User: Fold this.
Amino acid sequence: MIELKITNSAALLLLTERMKIEFNKRKSANNTEDWRELNNLDFEEILEIAEAAAIDLICMLPADILLERNNLDEIIARAIRSLSGIYNKEEFNIYTIEKSRKLVGQIEAIFDKYNEESTFNYN
Assistant:
């Protein structure tokens, strides 16, 4: 098992910065009104942006990390739960590791499939 050692504050900083980028992309694509700010969105909208940002961050990791067992789901769950203090939404406190495991699992499945296909091609 690969144990990723990152503080919650660092994970939260990465997540919030990526959320700002995701929100600005949505604003420029006219998915969100120009006058709206990330702080003013409701819980479901912020959670959707947070999960999209988490997926982006997962995709930026080296493939080796995703092919081995790791604690990435715990890190993501802690960071998303910490968003409750930033956006004053208590609903973030009930975000579970199972939800973050589903996010990580989607990306891991893609890497697993690619790894199987590429191994088959070289045999």
The mean pLDDT is 86. The two ends are 27 Å apart (CA to CA). DSSP finds five helices and no strands in the chain.
